[in-house]
Design goal:
132 residues; alpha/beta; Rossmann fold; six-stranded mixed β-sheet
């Protein structure tokens, strides 16, 4: 498993293509995909949006993410960092931030490589690209 994270519009998708040889056709979009597709996907972009959708259906984000790590251990996950900045007023948004952060921790723990992208520049925070 590999994880790419960072702020919105920082070049995470482009980074996945360059570092891991992912093609656009290999990416499913968490904002619109069918949930079961995650378990066979090569790459999931906007994983944080998939979590948002699951939360509205009262699915445990932690359990879904743990199951994903077990069933699709070779997937590349691309997700935004959403826990920084002003704390949202709406309780549902605070819960989403907290649950997304927990899911990110689970993914990072199971990943061989974790990359944070800032201004299009990848920074390896776990693992080694040469081992892949």
């Amino acid at each position: 498993m590999k994880m790419i994270t960072g702020g919105a519009f920082q070049g995470k998708g482009k980074c996945a293509k360059k570092l891991f040889g992912i093609h656009e056709s290999d990416m499913i979009d968490g904002a619109v995909c069918i949930y079961d597709e995650a378990f066979s996907a090569v790459c999931i972009k906007n994983y944080h949006e998939l979590l948002r959708r699951l939360l509205t259906e009262n699915v445990s984000l932690t359990e879904f993410t743990k199951q994903l790590c077990i069933e699709n251990s070779s997937v590349v996950i691309i997700m935004n960092e959403i826990g920084s900045g002003i704390v949202p007023l709406e309780k549902s948004e605070r819960i989403l931030r907290e649950e997304t952060g927990r899911a990110g921790c689970i993914i990072a723990e199971h990943s061989d490589v974790v990359v944070r992208v800032l201004c299009g520049i990848p920074m390896i925070i776990k693992g080694d690209l040469n081992d892949n």
